[in-house]
Amino acid sequence: MPSPRRYPEAALSRYLSSGIHAVHGWLDDFSAEAIAKLGEAQTDHGLSGAVAEIGVHHGKLFLLLQLVTRTDEKGLAIDLFEQQELNIDRSGQGDRGRFIENLRKHCGGEDGVVIRAASSTDVTAGEIRATVGPVRLFSVDGGHTEALTANDLKLAAASLVDGGIVVLDDHFNPYWPDVAAGLGRHIFVDQSPLRPFAITPGKVFLCHPDWSATWRDALVKAFPTAHEKQSEMYGAPVEILGIGRFSLRAEADRHLWQVKAFVKARPALASFARKLTGRN
């Protein structure tokens, strides 16, 4: 029997429906739902373990991980925080104060959370296991260079409990091509034991192949209308979910940005737009 939930189920539902939008960061709504579902599926299959994230920023995704934990599970937040001089690619900007503020607002406090202010290159899997135990859900969203991505994936893979899941950010983001290169390096050079099993907006999910069918089935059953197709990545089957809706929204956002830029560049038109919308 799993231990009791650390937080009421209503707290997770509230965060997914509204709280998540109050925390600065980058996380698609559907991907957040998918991560939460996988966390619940792990508990349903008897898995127990910590949750962890490299690259916390203000906690948008970490709070989600923490809200699925049980009373005997801890959360590990790894970020440079005050050491921003080490943030060589400027991918995010961790803020310890805002992170703690968000923890208190959405999780009621810092209970069960271990904060490690450091470069992930200075953290070992042995340290993670000694601090919070093996990890079942590990988000990799730290430095977006090839070397740092490969390092963080290797660290996450070595920290996992059997059946653990790694969530990689920005793999298909054209602004960060080194992330994809980092995953390839992890797969081929580091001889990773993990393989992708699902893709959602902004995220690639990885696990040991022995667990792939279990987690793919959990996602497809939970989100049948968002399931678009099964494909293959690095020789492993992957389920594609929620991408079409994400692409349409991204295209709409791009056009809206273009309209705003057009208006902003023309003062007379901008003044007319302010009067039209009542924003003087």
Write a concise keyword list for the protein shown above.
280 residues; alpha/beta; 9-stranded mixed β-sheet; 10 helices
What does this protein structure show overall?
By secondary structure, the protein is of the alpha/beta class. It is 45% helix and 20% strand. It contains ten helices and nine strands. The chain has helices at residues 9-17, 29-44, 60-67, 96-107, 125-132, 146-159, 177-188, 209-222, 243-264, 267-277, and strands at 50-54, 75-79, 113-117, 135-140, 160-169, 195-200, 203-207, 227-233, 236-241. It has a nine-stranded mixed beta sheet with strand order 3-2-1-4-5-7-6-9-8, sandwiched between helices. Strand 6 (195-200) and strand 7 form a beta hairpin. Helix 3 (60-67) runs parallel beside helix 4 (96-107). The radius of gyration is 19 Å and the shape is globular. The protein starts with 8 loop residues before the first helix and ends with a helix. The mean pLDDT is 90.
Element layout with pairings:
Elements: H1 9-17, H2 29-44, E1 50-54, H3 60-67, E2 75-79, H4 96-107, E3 113-117, H5 125-132, E4 135-140, H6 146-159, E5 160-169, H7 177-188, E6 195-200, E7 203-207, H8 209-222, E8 227-233, E9 236-241, H9 243-264, H10 267-277
Helix pairs in contact: 2-8, 3-4, 5-6, 6-7
